[in-house]
Amino acid sequence: MSNRELSDPITMRLPTDVLAEMEEIAAICGRTRSWVFVRALKSYLAAEGREIIEIDRARRDVEAGNGHDLDDVIDELEGIVKGAAA
Predict the structure, then answer these.
(1) For a Cys staple, 19 with which of 14, 51, 62, 80, CB 3.0–4.6 Å?
(2) Can you give the three-state secondary structure of 23-81, one letter per residue?
């Protein structure tokens, strides 16, 4: 069993088909519904959730002026390519 600190219990409503799948997976794995739910959340956070956070950070960087104009970047790259071809 994990020694991780746990939150207070939370309550949420799920579509019955989602709950049925979670219960089936839990039974097959010999785990609790909570275990399945935490695994699903971790998977979401590692993929789509991480992407949302990264996009938000990038948006804040641009708003703070920490970005580059795309046309300037393209011009610089074209100069590099032309220089390499010479």
Answers:
(1) 14
(2) HHHHHHHCCCHHHHHHHHHHHHHHHHHHHHHHHHHHHHHHHCCCCCCHHHHHHHHHHHH
**Cβ(33)–Cβ(22) below 8 Å:** yes
pLDDT at 55 over 70: yes
How many other C-beta atoms lie within 10 A of the C-beta of residue 22?
A: 19
What's the rounded Cα separation, in Å, for the pair 57 and 52?
9
Structure tokens at 8: 């207070």
pLDDT at 1 > cutoff 90: no
Instruction: List, for residues 5-39, the tens digit of each pLDDT value.
Output: 989 999 999 999 999 999 999 999 999 999 999 99
Task: Using alpha carbons, list the distances in angstroms from residue 43 to 19, 24, 47, 69.
Answer: 17, 18, 6, 34
Residue 55, phi-psi category: left (phi > 0), alpha (psi -120 to 50), beta (remainder): alpha
